[in-house]
Design a protein that fits this description.
By secondary structure, this protein is an alpha/beta fold. It has 10 helices and 8 strands. It has an 8-stranded mixed sheet, with helices on both faces. A hairpin with a 2-residue loop joins strand 7 and strand 8. Helix 1 packs across helix 8, helix 3 runs parallel beside helix 4 and helix 4 runs parallel beside helix 5. The mean pLDDT is about 90.
Length: about 325
């Protein structure tokens, strides 16, 4: 059977575990030579004695593929440049850049430290910029390139993860900007919002949060039932490998949700529902908005939070004051 990425060279960050590992293995299976980037840190970025990058390289070589390890952090601008240079020096080029590396520092915003915020932004958002910045220079010269950045549905907002959500929203803006800037050089850039069970996502807190969202009406039963199925990272890899092929030249600047048995595009900043007014120089009145917004602008839109009526909010605040009095 023909390999879809025969002769291609790729850098995959966060490739020692979870989704990144599945992607590195899939790209290698399809014929790509891979630089496997992973410093082997813990979920929150703490140092460990583990060497997941070396383990994945050994797996790829065992199945007959080509791979080299890199154990540096994408948050370091110079080291990110050396990751890309390693690919070019080893394989003669870089065709594919996949950014999966990430960390989590979960706190409510009032408990979050500056270091918690900076650490997550540095790895996710700046890390993506670092590798893309360096990789695109080679890709432009070659007239070809595929960039796949990993965002998250958390870009819509996520409790206890304002740092992560901000980074993931920023990655979408970064990716769409790259797509608009580099398309004339034969480069595409797309963002993936995955849903898979990994050490980063499958925690007791996450399971409880999903249950609460469903009970509060913020998630449909179909969406909730999907979260109860086994959703390994291997289900994400084929879409990434496809976007890395020459056949995916027409897909650019897209935000794509991927999980077991489901792939869909996401709207991010694009027009969806409308209110139009042609009279009175287009000036809406508040009464018109009160009447029209619920059925025209917000019809069918899933709420982001439970709806709290003004009376409920007042009584809740009063109750809290009584408890603390």
């Amino acid at each position: 059977m023909a390999k879809h990425l025969e002769g291609k060279a790729a850098v995959v960050t966060g490739a020692g575990r979870g989704i990144g590992r599945a992607i590195a293995l899939k790209l290698a299976e399809e014929g790509a030579s891979v630089i496997v980037v992973d410093p082997g840190v813990g979920r929150g970025g703490q140092a460990t004695d583990e060497d997941p990058a070396g383990e994945v390289v050994a797996e790829i070589r065992k199945m007959g593929g080509k791979a080299e390890a890199n154990r540096d952090s994408v948050a370091d601008y110079l080291k990110a440049g050396l990751m890309i240079k390693q690919c070019v020096d080893t394989y003669g080029k870089i065709d594919i850049m996949v950014n999966v590396a990430g960390n989590l520092r979960e706190r409510m915003i009032w408990n979050m430290s500056e270091d918690d915020f900076d650490s997550v932004i540095s790895v996710h958002l700046k890390g993506n910029w670092n590798t893309c910045h360096h990789a695109i220079k080679y890709m432009r010269a070659a007239g070809h390139g595929r960039i796949i950045n990993f965002s998250s549905d958390a870009f819509k907002g996520s409790v206890g993860q304002c740092n992560y959500s901000a980074a993931k929203a920023g990655i979408i803006g970064l990716t769409r900007s790259i797509a608009k800037e580099a398309y004339k050089n034969g480069i595409t850039a797309n963002a993936i919002c995955p849903s898979a069970d990994t050490r980063m996502t499958l925690t007791p807190e996450v399971k409880e949060n999903r249950r609460r969202k469903f009970e509060a009406g913020l998630m449909t039963k179909e969406q909730y039932d999907l979260t109860l199925q086994n959703r390994g990272p291997e289900y994400i890899a084929p879409m990434v490998a496809f976007l890395a092929t020459d056949d995916a030249y027409y897909i650019n600047g897209q935000v794509i949700h991927v999980e077991r048995g489901r792939i869909n595009t996401e709207l991010f900043g694009d027009d969806s529902r409308f209110l139009h007014k042609w009279s009175d120089e287009g000036m809406f009145t508040i009464d018109e908005l009160i009447e029209s917004v619920p059925n025209a602008l917000m019809s069918g839109v899933m709420p982001v939070t439970p709806v709290v009526k003004p009376a409920d909010a007042v009584s809740s605040t009063a109750a809290k004051k009584e408890k603390t009095a």
